[in-house]
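Appendix C: a fully annotated inverse folding record. The material below is reproduced so that readers can follow the format used throughout the book. The structure is listed first as tokens, followed by the designed sequence.
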């Protein structure tokens, strides 16, 4: 193999590598963006679920609303830092507030205790 053949082979290999790069880079880019988006979405879902758990655990606590909210915010920030999620105090407050509103909506739609007592009486009298 002489010097010219070596140069031609190097140029041919570089061309093949460049062609493969041009073909597979857009695909790899899309796959990596999809994976990053999916991971980010899962982190957001986990953060929202954790806020729901924190708020529901603070309901029986005997304290005023602001103290409960501050405790919830601090707990959520602690969780986020453990899970490597960037979260500031304002964002944590929004998650806690949304979880509180969601929990209030759900509990207000549940029937009150004793609401089905008349149904039980009718059923028992038959």
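Designed amino acids, in order:
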């Amino acid at each position: 193999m002489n010097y010219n053949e070596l140069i031609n082979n190097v140029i041919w290999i570089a061309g093949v590598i460049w062609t493969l790069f041009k073909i597979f880079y857009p695909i790899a880019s899309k796959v990596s963006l999809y994976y990053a988006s999916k991971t980010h979405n899962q982190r957001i879902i986990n953060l929202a679920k954790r806020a729901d758990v924190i708020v529901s655990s603070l309901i029986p606590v005997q304290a005023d609303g602001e103290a409960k909210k501050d405790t919830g915010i601090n707990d959520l920030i602690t969780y986020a830092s453990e899970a490597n999620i960037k979260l500031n105090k304002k964002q944590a407050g929004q998650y806690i507030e949304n979880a509180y509103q969601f929990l209030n909506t759900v509990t207000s739609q549940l029937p009150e205790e004793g609401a089905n007592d008349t149904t039980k009486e009718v059923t028992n009298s038959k």
